[in-house]
Known about the structure:
The chain has helices at about 55-70, 75-80, 85-105, 160-165, 170-190, 220-240; strands at about 5-10, 10-15, 20, 30, 35-40, 45-50, 115-125, 130-135, 140, 150, 195-200, 210-215. By secondary structure, the chain is of the alpha+beta class.
Amino acid sequence: xxxxxxxxxxxxxxxxxxxxxxxxxxxxxxxxxxxxxxxxxxxxxxxxxxxxxxxxxxxxxxxxxxxxxxxxxxxxxxxxxxxxxxxxxxxxxxxxxxxxxxxxxxxxxxxxxxxxxxxxxxxxxxxxxxxxxxxxxxxxxxxxxxxxxxxxxxxxxxxxxxxxxxxxxxxxxxxxxxxxxxxxxxxxxxxxxxxxxxxxxxxxxxxxxxxxxxxxxxxxxxxxxxxxxxxxxxxxxxxxxxxxx
Length: 245
């Protein structure tokens, strides 16, 4: 399983993902699920992935190859005129990759190769944008009503973000909020695990404002985890007591 979150702020975009991939309790591995590309001064694009690992790696590999290809017409990440066009092409690649895998595997492949992606980024002269791309290749864009997207194991960390999110919050507060959301998910579900990958994309910077991998010995994440547990216990004990009769 996976947990990834992409968030839109007035200041830009904040992304975080875990790295755990498992095919049973005795086959747990670590794979990066957050990828990014940039053209300095012109664009910054990031993708997070959840779902079948072979599918997501195939799509990411195709995107990587296109950035290195001599024929610039296929370099969607580098030459796509809008984030919408980039989302359209990644959706097409995802859909085609899933369809090809299902054809090869027949009935046994139905439902096994599904994947979902979050696309985030900014192209010069336009606003930062955030999309969620579905296995069918279609997608939706973040808005004022839906300012963040989650993929993977979403239910444990979602209430934290809903209660704490503010579009005008600082990057630092947004990172703290995501740390709490991921900590709650890690404690509730063993299929989501450290390390965590963090990427902050400042508006009109067209580069990574901040990039960090959170490991098991990260002192800040440890302080957030312990502090949140203490705060929850304190809040619980401060609530009015229930009375019988």
